[in-house]
Amino acid sequence: MLNRSRKYSPVPSSPASRASSSSSSLPAAPRRSPRALDRHGSLLSQYGALLESYTEGELRRLLGALVERRSGAKAGGRAKRARARHKPCALQQLEVSVSELGLGYESDETVLFRYCSGTCDGALRSYDLSLRSMRSSRRIRKEKVRARPCCRPLAYDDDVSFLDAYNRYYTVNELSAKECGCV
What we know:
Number of helices: 5
Strand order of the largest sheet: 1-2
CATH class of the domain at 90-182: Mainly Beta
Order of helices and strands: HHHHEEHEEEE
Largest sheet: 2 strands, antiparallel
Distance between the termini: 68 Å
Oligomer: single chain
Strand content: 15-25%
CATH superfamily of the domain at 90-182: Cystine-knot cytokines
Shape: elongated
Number of strands: 6
């Protein structure tokens, strides 16, 4: 139960009053220095006035930078990697030699290789939901199947022609993506 006869004071008492209170049967309560509520109030009003001077766009940038700094301090590089994984499906390009394509041709000619990269967070279709259910109930076991759409080429660029290291002429079709989408 509460002892209402005892009074707590935020101001430290004098040594004489401490000596008399220590002789009572109740232990002495820890004492804190008084809080300056006026100081906090004036600080809040100063920040309020400062924030009111910003435009809405400036406030958004400021808050975004603070949130990013805070989340970056917590997770470090992990947060950046997580954000990088959630880029939408899009067409990317890279200039490579024909030999680097891995098709077995030896050539120093370079081509512009366009490819699809990103995640597909679109709405799941009935197929995707059913496939996920069949996998979770272990009706489909060993096959490697994906229960969500993936980023793939929807159309391809024109055929690519080149000379190999032995001056033979080759044409490769459907090499470079022209348009990407979630399939």
